[in-house]
Amino acid sequence: MVCISGKLYFHWFWEDFDGGVHFMQGKLILSDGTVFLGQSFGAEGRESSGLSSTSGEVVFNTGMVGYPESLTDPSYFGQILVLTYPLVGNYGVPDPEFWESKKIQVKGLIVQNYIDHPSHFESQKNLDVWLKEEGIPALQGIDTRQLTTKLREHGVMLGRIEIQNVSHSETAFGRAKFKIQNYDPNAGNVLPQVSTDQVEVFGSGKKNIVLVDCGVKMNIIRSLVRRGVKITKVPWDFNPLNSKLDFDGVSVSPGPGDPKQAKATIQTTRQLLKTDIPIFGICLGSQILALAAGGNTYKLKFGHRGQNQPVQDMQNKKAIITSQNHGFAVDMKSLSNDWQEWFVNLNDGTNEGIRHKTKPFLAVQFHPEASPGPFDASFLFDEFLDLL
Q1: Would you call 44 a catalytic residue per the annotation?
Q2: Catalytic residue among 283, 304, 326, 352
């Protein structure tokens, strides 16, 4: 750790094969002025010249595996993802059919040790090549434990990655030639950037579910199609009640950003709550359902992002392990007595699911579709379909 001009700099060194020690070529700059120095890979990596930069909300994920799924999860749009597991890239990048969307959604990636030579029979390329293809910068050699501790203690914050080739004669810390304004994905409505812009149909079956795409993961669609239902995916601001669609239920998908910014989706859900059409919200969809019902949401200090989050079913008191990725939560006290708390997070007591006492409206804050993570909660898809 180095302190220069009142700012803290955390940095690692690495040795070339010739034994020489070099400073890393990139840095993560947090909004409080803390700087973590590391070695760049991905877009504008070691073979590049000049300076590249990206910014977003810096968040951490505690999962041991699943970086291809996490990187393509639209809920990470606008964020710089810190992976706490120390080895990343060791099993490469699978075919796109295993991704959760068509592209990488994060603004940047931070890891401790990047593995450049993957070993897995399904690997199509290494992580560095994939990041380069999609223009996503990344840093390795960062002390992710120190960074995660800071984010846990102070809360998630905005930050930026700056990457520049640095020679031995240019090792002055923080000597970037330009600065960019930090991007905040919660400051506006980001759903148009992750949602479909047209109606799409998946699977077939007698029952049709309208899936409101706020940034849906593909495994939600896969999970429902496997159960023999038809999925009609619609844009985030599409109102099925004003369409000619014949449908039996509605699912409001996960997605990025502050749920209060999704005003059109909230309004549509509010209208749906006046009917008896079954509704199933997942993650952001749970927050939108609560807002549509007159409740409130709030931002968590550092969010829940990982694959080992224990939750308890308040109806039968059973606990399950869940996959999670969210930075906001529902304030259960803000909802009317028509609603009951369905699940609770056993780590911090925050709400993890709501359910209407008399109507077929239910939602969970975690991810029953997993990808990555355990499938303990997959039964919830069956419970929803039983309501149709």
Answers
A1: no
A2: 283
CATH number at residue 329: 3.40.50.880
Whether 367 is catalytic: yes
Q: What digits encode the pLDDT tens for the residues 292-347?
A: 999 999 999 999 999 999 999 999 999 999 999 999 999 999 999 999 999 999 99
Tokens of 313: 């079913």
For residues 329, 332, 338, 341, the Cα torsion angle rounded to the nearest 10 degrees is 80
**Helix 284-292 / helix 263-272 crossing angle, nearest 10 deg:** 60
Is 100 annotated in the active site? no
The answer as to whether 180 is a domain residue is no
| Spatial CB neighbours of 359, under 8 Å, sequence gap ≥ 6 | 273, 276
Residues with Cβ within 8 Å of 159's Cβ and at least 6 positions away in sequence, in order, are: 28, 29, 30, 31, 55, 56, 57, 58, 80, 182
Half-sphere exposure of 152 (CA within 13 A, CB side): 14
- Establish how many alpha carbons lie within 13 A of residue 218's alpha carbon, considering only the half-sphere containing its beta carbon: 12
Residues 252 and 338 in one domain: yes
73 plus 222 within the same structural domain: no
For the CA atoms of 38, 42, 48, 54, what is the dihedral angle to 10 degrees? -70
What CATH number did the domain enclosing 10 receive?
3.50.30.20
Structure tokens at 82: 């810190």
Structural domain boundaries enclosing 113: 2-167
pTM of the entire structure? 0.90
Strands 7-11 and 13-15: unpaired
